[in-house]
Every structure is written in C-alpha cells, then in structure tokens.
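User: Here's a chain of 333 residues. Predict its fold as tokens.
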Amino acid sequence: MNQVPTRRNFIRSTVLGSLGLSLIPYRNNPQDDDIYMPLSERNLFPVVLSTWNHGLKANEAAWEVLEQGGRALDAVEQGVRVPEADPAVTSVGYGGWPDADGNVTLDACIMDEQGNCGSVAYLQHIKHPVSVARLVMEKTPHVMLAGEGALQFAKDQGFTEESLLTEEARKAWEKWKAGRTGEAAGKEKHDTIGMLAIDQAGNVAGACSTSGLAFKLPGRVGDSPIIGAGLFVDNEAGGAVATGIGELMMKTLGSFLIVELMRNGMNPSEACTTALLRIIKKYDLEPDKQVGYLALNKSGDVGACSIRPGFDYALCRQGKENLLLKSDYIIKE
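Assistant: Prediction complete.
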C-alpha cells in the first residue's frame, strides 16, 4: 500500500535531499586524520577523550590515573570530578545553572568494562554526582537512584550537602525570571562533560555529568544518566557519549546505537554520523538544536560528529598531547 505523502514528510525528504554532500560530515581537522588510525597499531594506549574545552583539565586528571596503570573506570571518575567542582563551568556540577525554580539539579552516570553501571538523576546539594553514581553501581543492586532517594543514599555514603548555586548562576536565573536579556537568559546550555578512556590493559570505561538545560522545568531529567542515551560502553566494541539536547538522544538511544554500529564494523566517525542522521531524518529540528557524539572503539580509533558546527572535544594520548579538536558536522550553516 502506497503511503500518501504529507507536507511534513515532503519537507523533510526535500531538506535531506538538498543536504546532498552534507550527508558526508564536514571534517574540521583534515590535518589530524592520523587520530582516526588505530592507536593500538602505534602503541598509543592508554587514551582518554572528553567533550568540550573543559575536557582538557578533565583529561589531565584522568591521565594521572592512567599513567600509573590505573583502571579506566577510576580515570573517568577522577576526570569528570574536575568540571563538577569548577564554578566556571556553568553546565556541570557546582556552578551549573538552575532550573526554573532556582534549584541546581544534577544528573550523572558511569559504566565500566564489565558492563556494570550506575547513575543518579535530579540529585541536589551534592557536588560530585559521578562519584555517587559509582557507588550506586558498586554498593546497590540498582542502576539508577533519583531525587530525594539519591540524596539520602549520598548522605548515607558520607557525602556532605552543600549549596551548588553560585552568585553568577543566581544572577543569571534572576535575569531570566524577570524576562531580561543576558548572556545566560533563555539559552539552552548543554555542555555536558562526557569522558571515555582505554587503560593500559585495553579496557574501556566512560562517565558523564551535567546540570542539564538552564531554567528547565523542575523535575526534568536529560540523557546524561540514561544508560544507552548519554553513555554506553561495551568492552568488546568500545564506548560513546553524547552532548546536546538530551530529549533527542533519549528518543534514539544514540550512544547504544553507536557502539552497536562499531561492533558491526563501522569506525567511530561513521557510527557517530549514522546516529545523527537518524535524528535528522526522524525529527524536525529547530535551528538551535544541537547534538554531538564522541566515540572510541576497542582498537583506540576516535570519532566525533555533531549535527551543526561548534562541538569541540579533547583528546589525550600517551600524555604527550592534550588537544582540543573540532568535530565533524553534518549540516553546514
């Protein structure tokens, strides 16, 4: 039976068709093609990579663990804790912009090489949700704790409650609430810290953490604590992390999809691009809607791609270089 075309489907197919060459992602760093070579062939284990420019300092902390022969799991936890504690990073942990009621609420998850994982959602008053997520993984039979339950668990494990609302974040929220304009007001901030690492033993782990969209509806939870959406790791294939509008990742389970595509032979860059094309084809995207994926396969190949330009990621290999790179992107603006 033939499907009757609708205006929406026609517009979508026309736009995708008009992208043409844009279906092949634009590479920002052609001179860095060597980073897509298997690192294992060049004896460059361990390796760590993370999202955005705050990933540079996060990588440094992770590398301190990796260079001592530590587990990738320990490395990603220690790395993510850096932006969580940095008040200048307004999308993660302490200093993160609040929800519409003025409350800072945090989401995080972590996953190890054995497929174990833990996460917390809508956690308040705890600076390091990634460490709470790890204890959920290690000390409970559960994967996720949320809200008051997550807070109580954190306190039971020795974490101390503290205010996470900085003066800068409070002023931004007050401007937004008053309907004024400003650097923060009304903007969707989604600079999640996502990190992947391979240690000297060749094992993969990942973690991510965020304060979510600025001025979100109270109770909103994004993709970052959702295993398979914001993060997925499989030691046989590799790992992937996401950043951007979390609802789009939750609708398509992009991180899981990327890992499965790598398992079936795609390199990380191709897998990231394919996952993004699924979003583009299924949903009508407003001009400011952005999603970026970062992936690392078992061989150490690195890939990154976003819907639109502007997604940066940090790569550290052998401790000799800690580079901030621009990802490939699909839609040229």
